[in-house]
Amino acid sequence: MSMSSARVAIVGGGLSGLYAAYLLEQHGLRDYVLLEARSMVGGRITSAGIENAFFDARRNRFDLGPAWFWPAFQPELDRLVSDLCLERFEQHGMGDMLVERSPHEPPLRTAGYAMSPPSMRLVGGMGALVDALREKLPATRIATDRQVHRLRLSAGRIELDARSSQGQSATYEAERILIAIPPRLAATSIDFMPGLPAPLHREWNSTSTWMAAHTKYVAIYDNPFWREQGLSGEARSATGPLAEIHDASMPGGHAALFGFLGMPARMRGRLTEEELRVHCRAQLARIFGPAAGHPLADMIKDWAADPLTATAADQDDIGGHGGAPSASAQASDWSGVLTGIASEWSPHFPGYLAGAIEAARLGVQSMTTAATGAP
């Protein structure tokens, strides 16, 4: 079997992996390979839409993963959005919100509240950020459908064993590894030889993966009819299945509502995807009126059912933003050659989009500092 070699191997092609590759390019360190298990890059960023001859399909997309960022206190991500010339807009929040306390009572209409600082979204969804970064990288440096399942230290270098979805094997060799998949997923899906220090392995395995416990539902419409009623599109429900609902409309494109399911992963796993859609449509009709029950299209993404995101531990996890675990394996054979850069390793924004940017920058920074011998 032939072996491909690179100075740096990035395991995972989500936002942190792509940004790490982008930074390596900026530093002139182009001897790297990015290995992504999925058939396309993006990781937990998934933006999808519907076909319409009147709209630019690439701009008219809706996020089934993370969607918001806050420029006021996430300046690093904000600068990247500006540098890539991406179009942003403020999350719609004007109007009243609705609160559903019981399926047998009309929802309570109450004054909405302005988010401060305001949350922002990207035209075309966060997939536009993935597309822009992807276009900055040489296609020859990215290998999709390559799930890394083993890392072996061998004579001062690291061998990465990967396999495709069809079971084909490939081996890569590198001097440094940047782990751009969530800590828990890395701890459970990659066989480290020699093993990680036991305390570090436990720490990674106990770190919640953001989005892994959640399901997101999007309903698409011709127009945002709720705004004509003075509603913001925001709602909360104690009945469900959607616990939290927001306006997801795209400027210059279709209108939409999205919500997070409030059902635990094991409970929603007992229902088919179509059954979940039916319940979501019925709830939207209860809250926003009959028109909401007849979207042009609707989409659902259960991240707990995605084996490239969630593990068995995520089935009972509440999926919050916790503290960042250790990003490196100090005082072990892996010290100085392995660094975690997925969003959960971010010191200030663990689990957020801005966390992926921060953790990737810190990982690349530590590697380039070590390479140049800078203090």
How does this model look, in words?
The protein is an alpha/beta fold. The protein has two domains: 1-45 and 126-209 and 321-375, FAD/NAD(P)-binding domain (3-Layer(bba) Sandwich); 57-122 and 213-305, Polyamine Oxidase, Chain A, domain 2 (Alpha-Beta Complex), CATH 3.90.660.10. The chain is 24% helix and 25% strand. The protein is built from nine helices and 21 strands. It has helices at 15-26, 75-83, 127-135, 183-189, 198-205, 225-228, 265-268, 273-288, 353-372; strands spanning 3-5, 8-11, 32-35, 47-48, 62-63, 88-90, 96-100, 108-110, 120-122, 142-143, 147-154, 157-163, 169-174, 176-179, 191-193, 215-221, 231-237, 242-247, 255-261, 297-302, 338-340. The strands form five sheets. It has a seven-stranded mixed sheet with strand order 8-7-17-18-19-16-20. The protein has a five-stranded mixed sheet with strand order 1-13-12-11-15. The longest helix is centred in the last third of the chain and has 20 residues, at 353-372. The protein is globular, with a radius of gyration of 22 Å. The two termini are 41 Å apart.
